[in-house]
Amino acid sequence: MHELGIVFYIIRDVKQAAGENGVSHVDAVVMDIGEVSTIVPEYLTDCWRWAADKEELLRGCELKINTIPAVTHCDDCGGEYETVRYGKTCPCCGGEHTWLLRGNEIEIKEIQVNN
After folding, report:
1. CB 52: neighbour CB atoms within 10 A?
2. Beta strands in the chain (DSSP E)
3. Per-residue model confidence as pLDDT tens for the chain (115 residues)
4. ∠ CA 61-66-70 to the nearest 5 degrees?
5. Are strands 62-68 and 28-34 parallel, antiparallel or unpaired?
6. If you write DSSP's letter for every residue of 40-72 in order, what string do you get?
C-alpha cells in the first residue's frame, strides 16, 4: 500500500504551504488523481484520515478527490481516446503510436481554509 507514503508527502506539502501563509488550520485538501495513477482512492482516504488526525493543523481535515479520466493521443491519426477502455491501440485507426495525454496525475489542486 503505497498510498500511506503518498499521504505523508501530501501532509508535508500542505504543512509547508500553511506555514508560508500563516494558516493555523486546514479544512480540506483537494487532490487531482489520474484514473491510471495506480492510486486507490479509498485507500488514500483511509490513510489520510489516520495520518491527518495526528497533526493539529489537519485534525478533521477532509480529503477531496477529483478523478481525472485517462486519455491517450494517437500520433498516427491525431485522435484522442479513452485509455482504460481501449489501451494502447487506437480505436479510430488501429495505430500503435500512442501516448498517455492525461490521467496519471497525483496533484494537490487546492488547500481550503476558513480564516
Report:
1. 21
2. 28-34, 62-68, 71-74, 80-82, 98-102, 106-112
3. 589 999 999 999 999 999 999 999 999 999 999 999 999 999 999 999 999 999 999 999 999 999 999 999 999 999 999 999 999 999 999 999 999 999 999 999 999 998 6
4. 150
5. parallel
6. -HHHHHHHHHHHHTTSGGGTT-EEEEEEEPPEE
CA–CA separation, 37 and 33 (whole Å) = 7
Region for 67 from its dihedrals, namely left if φ exceeds 0, alpha if ψ lies in -120 to 50, beta otherwise: beta
CA-to-CA dists, residue 83 to 14, 38, 73, 94, angstroms:
31, 14, 9, 14
